[in-house]
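ok so for the tutorial part 2 we go from a plain amino acid sequence to predicted structure tokens. step 1 is just haveing the sequence, like this:
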Amino acid sequence: MKKIVVLTGAGISAESGLKTFRDSDGLWEGYNVEDVATPEAWQRNPKLVQEFYNQRRKTVLEASPNVAHKALAELEQKYDVTIITQNIDDLHERGGSGKVLHLHGIITRSQSDKNANLTYPIKGWELKMGELCELGSQLRAHVVWFGEAVPMIEEAAKECMMADIFILVGSSLAVYPAAGLVNYVPRQVPKYIVDPKIPYMPSDKFIKIEEKATVGVPLLVSELLND
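step 2 — the prediction. this is what the tokens look like for a chain of 227 residues:
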């Protein structure tokens, strides 16, 4: 069974109504990223950061996977599929994908303020101040903030190295280290990119599908399943 590795970015979730990580004005949902998505922000004003992610979690839970998420899950009928996502939502899982690697964490889980390896499911959308981990420290959203290490990057790189087919969906390749993953895909492997605005690509040839995810992904999946 051939292995397909799919790297997804904000573009695929945007079509489910979730805003991209950072708007053109540099803000995220009206906030400066430095005020809500850094360890320093958490130290300065944990209540603000907690509330910010509570609202993002509420929005995620109200959203539904779109036809692009569901189409990628259909690839598992014929291929060994790994989804590597830069997104912190759970739409790939709810869309039916069985193996999803979250580079930047997942907002539906919490983590210990002292030990990031201690994570817990969150019931509902609200994580309250005063909710503690087993070490007695405050629980925060299980997301990777600016200035923090990306613990899953090595595993993601290994997956890319084993790919027989590589697909990039809805990512501008502007955020590192995730953007560097394409360099781990073997040169001879077929590579596809689905995006309405194709970003600058590395020297390796990509087969370009210049469509939004909900159009381009089902087309590509149909082609691969019929191959």
